[in-house]
Each structure stands twice: as structure tokens, then as C-alpha cells.
Specification:
24% helix, SH3 type barrels, Pdz3 Domain, three-stranded antiparallel β-sheet, single chain, alpha+beta, 13 strands
């Protein structure tokens, strides 16, 4: 498909106010992070092969495949983005920080506990787990999933595995100043629920194939429009990485935390359009 337009949209002091510029950056970074994360979860393992640096283990037995499909369906139905989910805490708030050799890299929390998903990396492999699952290669069973942490049980003891490894000891972080781009990026990646006012993301499927992600404004359409996006844009790639490909989607998610520049490619009225932003601008 012919690329008709490349929109170099660099935010500057002469354009938006500092506060509005911060909101737009928050929107774009959050949009990219969520697209990459959602792509990774929705695509079946048979479609693509993940890069060597990240391996996802999907069981091959028919029963497990059926369970995997049910889990993916639950993810689609759980309204994961834009809802601040607060699951019931059964008294494990004070569970000590776990020393398990594993990293909690993502959480998809639902108000229906059985639909919550935790993404855990261990020994170079990342897998998704539900409540009741045992983390591969360990004796740790997941008993609760919260927006910022999970509770695991090891040797009959509750332990907490945090999304942010410093969350167990660090005081709550103050909201970053409008001009603090690094702070904004970290904030939105820790709390994707902030996107609910700005953005709606819907996967588009055709013949069981992912075509991209439909983007629409949230309750604050002004910010959405200023980002360079338009209603019904279909996002297909970030920084040249195809969101419809599992391996590329994983790479996109890994790279977003360190990118100085971002380019979101969307299909608009049948033509590709690039929306560019320089995250390193002061």
C-alpha cells in the first residue's frame, strides 16, 4: 500500500502549552505501550515466532490450547484498558516482598478474579499466568492479582511480587512535572488506567487474522485530536515493528521504555500515515 503522507509532528514550546504537551506525550506513549502489550496477548503462538531474546511457551496439547483460547477471550472481554480495577484484598496487603528469581513484567487486572492475567519473566522466558497457576520451574502458586502486584504462595507463605521492583520499599512517587518527559513515560507505563479519558483501543479481526487496532477518542477528545490521531485510525506498527506480528509486538513493548523517538503508523482512509514524535525534546 502506497505511503501517501508522513506527518512529522514535533511538539514544541511554540505549539502546545507545557501542560497540554505533557498530556499528548502521555497519550502517545501510553497508546504505544498498550498496543504492543495487547498485540502480544491476542495473537496465537502459531502465527509468528518470538525473537530469540524473548520466548513464550504455549503448551501444544488440545486441552491446553482450548484453555489458552478461553483465557484470550477473557482478556478481550475484561475491559482491561481504561478501568481502574480494585480486586478484593483478602488480607495479603502486608505480604513480604518475594525473593523469587522472576520479574513481573505486566499485569492485566480484571474485577473478575478468574480473568486477571500476570505476565512473568524467568530465565529469559515470558509467560502469562492466571490465579491458581504455578510459575514454571518454581513451587510458587499465584493466589491474587492486583493492578500493581501479585501474591504468590511458597511453602505455605504469602509473598508479593511487584510490578515495580522498588515498590515494596519506596514511598509513593509524586506526580511528574509537565515538562518531565521521562517521568511521564514511567507514570503511564505503571498505570495504564490513566488512558481512559483519552483513548479507546479495539482489536480488529478479519478471518481470524489481526488487522490492527482501532483508535478512538475517550472522554477528552481534544487531547486525542492534538496527538495527530484521528477517530477510527487503525494502528498497524510502532517504530517499524508490526503490531500484527507477535515477535514484533514483543520487541516494541521492550523498546518503548528507552526510545527517544516514536513513530506510530496508522491506516487512515485506506492510506498509511506516520505520526512522529521526538520524546527527547526538552
Amino acid at each position: 500500500m502506497q505511503l501517501l503522507t508522513i506527518q512529522n509532528w514535533c511538539l514544541s514550546e511554540n505549539g502546545l502549552s507545557a501542560l497540554r504537551r505533557a498530556a499528548v506525550l502521555l497519550l502517545l506513549v501510553g497508546c504505544s505501550y498498550q498496543l504492543a502489550r495487547l498485540s502480544w496477548q491476542l495473537l496465537p503462538a502459531s502465527q509468528t515466532t518470538a525473537p530469540a531474546s524473548v520466548s513464550t511457551n504455549i503448551p501444544a496439547t488440545p486441552g491446553d490450547q482450548q484453555e489458552s483460547q478461553q483465557r484470550l477471550a477473557a482478556i478481550r472481554e475484561a475491559a482491561l484498558f481504561g478501568i481502574d480495577v480494585q480486586p478484593q484484598d483478602r488480607g495479603t496487603t502486608a505480604a513480604p516482598k518475594s525473593r523469587l528469581n522472576a520479574q513481573l513484567t505486566g499485569i492485566m487486572a480484571s474485577n473478575i478474579a478468574s480473568r486477571s492475567i500476570a505476565i512473568i519473566a524467568r530465565n529469559g522466558q515470558q509467560q502469562s499466568y492466571a490465579i491458581g497457576d504455578v510459575i514454571q520451574g518454581t513451587d510458587a502458586r499465584i493466589t491474587e492479582i492486583f493492578p500493581d502486584r501479585i501474591i504468590i504462595t511458597r511453602q505455605q507463605q504469602d509473598e508479593a511480587l511487584f510490578l515495580d521492583e522498588n515498590a515494596a520499599t519506596a514511598p509513593p512517587a509524586a506526580a511528574p512535572a509537565p515538562g518531565n518527559i521521562t517521568g511521564l513515560r514511567q507514570q503511564i507505563m505503571k498505570n495504564p488506567a490513566q488512558l481512559q479519558d483519552y483513548l479507546s483501543i479495539t482489536p480488529v479481526m478479519e478471518n481470524n487474522q489481526l488487522q490492527g487496532y482501532r483508535l478512538n477518542p475517550g472522554r477528552n477528545p481534544e487531547i486525542f485530536g492534538q496527538s495527530g490521531l484521528q477517530a477510527n485510525d487503525l494502528a498497524i506498527s510502532i517504530n517499524g515493528l508490526d503490531l500484527r506480528d507477535k515477535g514484533d509486538a514483543v520487541q516494541a513493548m521492550q523498546q518503548l521504555a528507552h526510545q527517544a523517538e516514536m513513530n506510530i503508523t496508522v491506516l487512515r482512509n485506506g492510506a498509511e500515515q506516520d505520526i512522529y514524535i521526538n520524546l527527547a525534546q526538552p
